[in-house]
Write a structure and sequence with these properties.
Largest sheet: none
Strand content: under 5%
Structural class: mainly alpha
Number of helices: 36
Radius of gyration: 35 Å
């Protein structure tokens, strides 16, 4: 079979059917029928074509428009179902997809037990999942059996959850309006948190992935609109949206975690109080950030799972990613010995993938301890030698100040944007949020890590912003929901999506303007950020606002405006030496040397030996043409830091302008050695010529010195 030819015809068919061009769709199907399909399919195709031609003739003769449209909608639906059936046959018989392998695996069982009987009588959740995942388009009998399963009192919640997940994956593979309508009907029922999460996430994935298909089915579009208008689901959609966006940019925390553990191992070596405080701050920031990210929906364990899941055959079957974890499943009986029933909150906080890995690690730890105890029991007499050295005990005595730093870990969470939002949620809502997080993390891992995954079925390759989809827009009109989502995205540093949410909020509120400005700055839209920050800075004198505004001015190459912001900062904090040093640097860059010296003298009054201030003062003298004073200051700096490259280069400039060419040569050579340069390039003196030419650094002087240095380097 020519797969390329079939797929080309399939693509032509999908374009035609989505454009509601029925005749073009039927022509594309006629081409497909030469590759796949049976006699019944060909008869259906001929029947549809004949009825459509009759419809066209009736239309030509002036038949009522509404009747023609109704008949056309019916024919479109039949055409879509025929195309769906043909594509299912092609996928199962002529591809190597995972669904096709499952189809072949249950080939004999399909003949003996149709899907509706499987739904009624099969108790094995693996078989249920597999048969639903690779199922042909649903018939009315299958719909009835599925409804019976969801309502049967003897069917467990785990079985129902498995069915919902399998139907979701089947719909992601190919859109079956009958299956989708059945899923939408489940939203009218009272569901447990587990089933509510499976259903809500599944429908969102389907809406994201098959947005274009809903316009073909008015009855589906109507049911979907009813679901969107149901306020009982709006909080769920907000949770799903935030977790989708967070999961899509899950961070790699392996490096940071290992670095923290290395620092923790060095605790006993931290003798200075300042070092101990620095370590505690690092630990507080790390834990607080990870904690906040976890609440916001980031899969902070994704990188570790990515490495570990390859070791276990458990993850080679799609069903195992979705059947709720239980050690009482037959294939997991080996984990019963280490089963420690988690609390309800813990159980909701972890998905199937995490719970399985935790159980396997507990089993490995138990076996290791048993082997170690067995080894010790077999060697009861072990020669021991007394050691004069006392065992080293690691201790960390905390002062009151250190204890406050540890409390900061809790405060970091309590005062975070995420915590502000979640603090308003009751216990039931938090459990639901954790359940959403866990399941979305499981699905995110499946779509990205499952060995036999089909990238064409991955909803994370589509647009995850639900508000931008006409299917979900009605659920995201409320300003409180938009504000909450914007805050969550901002807290996890997802600034592009945070910006999208804040842009739909009224700008009369100061906090909205501030968040917009911060998002514009973070996404590189500096001009827009300046417009908002200038308004805010006029209304209030705030250090963070002025620093952010200055950074935007720098990015827009507006140094004079940035300088004004720093002058205002100095007025707010006249004793802040860090601000004074930054202000001096900016005065220097704008050639306002007297103002720069005023700031440097203020710093040196409080810190007479501040190296950076002394270096800036020497550079200032050099740029002002006060060569002798600059030469003296650089000499002092060289005594303190003889290998500092900035000091060496500027001291060489100073010696050159002072006429001490021998000293200048030695300093330039020392600089070249520090920089490991073997040749002086033409632009070596470019900066000096630009800034020092007014005080005597001529191009000819630069040429002579460059040639002299290259001559020295050759010897």
């Amino acid at each position: 079979m020519d797969t390329t030819a079939y797929l080309t015809l399939r693509d032509d068919y999908m374009k035609a059917i989505r454009g509601r061009h029925l005749l073009d769709a039927l022509r594309a199907l006629q081409g497909q029928l030469s590759w796949v399909g049976n006699r019944r399919d060909r008869q259906e195709h001929e029947s549809i074509l004949a009825e459509y031609q009759l419809l066209l003739r009736d239309f030509q003769q002036g038949a009522e428009s509404s009747v023609c449209q109704e008949r056309n909608a019916s024919l479109l639906h039949r055409t879509y179902q025929l195309g769906l059936s043909l594509h299912h046959g092609f996928t199962m018989e002529h591809t190597q997809q995972y669904r096709a392998k499952l189809w072949q695996k249950y080939a004999d069982q399909r003949v003996q037990q149709p899907l509706e009987d499987v739904l009624r009588y099969e108790m094995d959740e693996h078989v249920l999942f597999d048969r639903l995942y690779c199922a042909a388009p649903w018939t009315a009998e299958v719909v009835e059996a599925a409804e019976e399963l969801m309502q049967h009192p003897n069917r467990s919640e785990d079985t129902r959850a498995t069915v919902l997940s399998a139907v979701t994956l089947s719909l992601l593979a190919v859109f079956d309006s009958t299956q989708c309508a059945w899923l939408l009907r489940q939203t009218d029922k009272v569901l447990s948190p587990l089933l509510r999460v499976r259903l809500g996430v599944g429908l969102v994935y389907i809406g994201i992935h098959h947005e274009a298909s809903f316009s073909l089915f008015p009855h589906l579009a109507k049911s979907w609109k009813t679901w969107m208008n149901s306020t009982t689901w709006h909080d769920d959609l907000r949770m799903i949206q935030s977790t989708l966006l967070a999961s899509a940019q899950s961070r790699d925390t392996v490096y940071e975690g290992s670095r923290l553990m290395e620092r923790f191992a060095q605790v006993s070596e931290l003798s200075e109080p300042q070092s101990k405080q620095t370590f505690l701050r690092e630990m507080a920031n790390f834990v607080a950030e990870r904690f906040v990210d976890g609440l916001a929906g980031i899969d902070i364990a994704f990188s570790g799972f990515k490495i570990m899941h390859r070791r276990y055959a458990f993850f080679r079957e799609a069903a195992n990613w979705f059947i709720p974890f239980s050690v009482h499943r037959p294939e997991l009986q080996h984990l019963v010995a280490v089963d420690a029933p988690p609390s309800d909150m813990e159980h909701r906080a972890f998905g199937t993938t995490d719970l399985y890995l935790m159980a396997e690690m507990n089993l490995a730890r138990k076996r290791f301890m048993e082997q170690m105890q067995k080894g010790l029991s077999e060697q009861p007499e072990i020669a021991t030698s007394e050691s004069s050295e006392e065992p080293k005990v690691i201790s960390l005595e905390l002062t009151e100040e250190d204890a406050e730093l540890l409390k900061a870990m809790r405060r970091e969470h309590e005062h975070s944007d995420v915590s502000d939002i979640l603090s308003e949620e009751n216990k039931e809502s938090r459990i639901l949020k954790l359940t959403y997080n866990a399941y979305i993390h499981d699905t995110y891992r499946f779509f990205h890590l499952f060995t036999n995954r089909n990238e064409g079925e991955n909803p994370y390759r589509d647009n995850l912003m639900l508000r931008e989809s006409p299917l979900f827009r009605n659920a995201f009109k409320d300003e409180q929901i938009l504000a909450a989502l914007g805050q969550l995205c901002f807290a996890i540093k997802d600034y592009p999506h945070a910006l999208s949410f804040f842009q739909h909020l009224p700008r009369e509120h100061r906090d909205v303007r501030l968040r917009l400005a911060q998002c514009y700055h973070a996404t590189g839209h500096y001009a827009e950020a300046v417009d908002l920050l200038e308004q805010l800075a006029e209304a209030e004198e705030d250090e963070s606002l002025l620093r952010l505004l200055s950074h935007c001015y720098d990015a827009l190459h507006r140094p004079e405006d940035a300088l004004v912001s720093w002058i205002r900062l100095e007025q707010l904090h006249p004793d802040n030496l860090e601000i004074a040093e930054s202000l001096a640097q900016r005065f220097l860059e704008l050639q306002l040397y007297s103002d720069a010296l005023d700031q440097l003298h203020k710093i040196l009054y409080h810190k007479p030996h501040d190296f950076d201030a002394l270096l800036l003062k020497a550079q200032c003298y050099l740029l002002m043409g006060r060569i002798e004073e600059a030469h003296q200051h650089f000499g002092t700096l060289l005594d303190r830091a003889p290998e500092h490259t900035d000091v060496l280069k500027h001291a060489a400039h100073s010696a050159l302008l002072a006429g001490d060419y021998a000293m200048a040569t030695r300093l330039y050579m020392a600089y070249l050695e520090q920089e490991q340069l073997k040749f002086v390039h033409e632009d070596f003196f470019a900066d000096a010529l630009e800034s020092l030419e007014p005080v005597g650094f001529t191009p000819q002087l630069a040429i002579f010195m460059r040639d002299l240095l290259n001559s020295e380097l050759q010897h």
